[in-house]
Design goal:
single chain, mainly alpha, MetI-like fold, 2 domains, 11 helices, 72% helix, 0% strand, globular
């Protein structure tokens, strides 16, 4: 007679592959959560700062701020000379840094022989200079440009220093834009009998312009917000007249810095209003960079 034994229930042991999949899924969720938390902290901090600045300076953001000169009376104080000097500095940096940076990038990417030691030296120096603090440029500018050459504490000297500050950024951004151009474009132009200069001028540059323009505008927005190098090369904190290229000047970041040091709370409000104006200028430049990139970007 056959007897049947009841089935014995055993604990289910997942296969090693299931353990691995479960561990990977848990790590993936943990990584996503950490990234989301980091993003929320960063944007939350930025939002708090922006709300604080806008709420503090909104009441002082009027036509007087844009049209009046600085004054010892907060009710009559403005930032017109500082705003004009900031625009002058930005225009000069644009005229100096962008052509030099783009031409340097073209030479390094299209013409330079990397077997030559001086080309390697230039590349290393550009990469290192991009990480140098701006105050160091200010000290060098004070020693060699203001005092050495004898230009003086004028707008043009400040523009030269800011050009040195942002030039490595323009070069690096332009080189990346040139590298992004497919090599097949160059080879096709050479196959049609084009010279090296024709390939660079008519094929590579038009394709790289969106990246170059974006990097140049972002570098310019950094120059507009610099304070330390300008203080070192002679940007004074109180200028009651419109600046000239070869005259005394102040810049908007320097003017904001001066207002924040005043004990009167009305000057603190003016400083916040000046910060709003500076933010509008910088964000406008960033918006232009985004529009240029999206409008002229090519998909290969």
């Amino acid at each position: 007679m056959t007897t049947f034994e009841p089935a014995v229930e055993r604990d289910y042991e997942p296969a090693p592959e299931e353990h691995t999949r479960s561990s990977r899924a848990w790590k993936n969720r943990l990584f996503k959560g950490a990234m989301l938390l980091s993003m929320l902290v960063a944007f939350g901090t930025l939002a708090v700062l922006l709300v604080d600045i806008v709420s503090t300076g909104w009441s002082a953001l009027d036509w007087k701020l844009l049209s009046n000169a600085p004054s010892t009376q907060p009710s009559e104080a403005g930032a017109k000379p500082a705003i004009l000097a900031t625009l002058y500095l930005g225009a000069l940096v644009l005229l100096l840094a962008v052509p030099i940076g783009i031409l340097t990038a073209i030479y390094l990417e299209e013409y330079a022989d990397r077997r030559r030691w001086w080309n390697r030296l230039i590349e290393v120096n550009i990469q290192n200079l991009a990480a140098v603090p701006s105050i160091v440029y200010g000290i060098l500018g004070l020693a060699f440009i203001v005092r050495g050459i004898g230009i003086g504490r004028v707008v043009f000297a400040g523009a030269l220093i800011l050009t040195l500050v942002v030039l490595p950024t323009v070069v690096v951004a332009s080189r990346e834009a040139i590298r992004a151009v497919p090599d097949s474009i160059r080879q096709g132009a050479f196959a049609l009998g084009a010279t090296k200069w024709q390939v660079v001028w008519r094929q590579v540059l038009p394709a790289a312009i969106p990246g170059m323009a974006t990097g140049s505008i972002l570098a310019l927005s950094r120059a507009v917000g610099e304070t330390a190098p300008l203080i070192m090369v002679g940007a004074v904190v109180y200028v009651a007249f419109n600046p000239t290229l070869l005259g005394e000047y102040t810049a908007l970041p320097v003017q904001i810095y001066n207002w924040t040091k005043q004990p009167d709370t009305e000057f603190q409000t003016l400083a916040a209003a000046g910060a709003i104006v500076l933010l509008v200028i910088v964000l406008s430049m960033n918006a232009v960079a985004i529009v240029v990139r999206n409008r002229y970007r090519r998909k290969w």
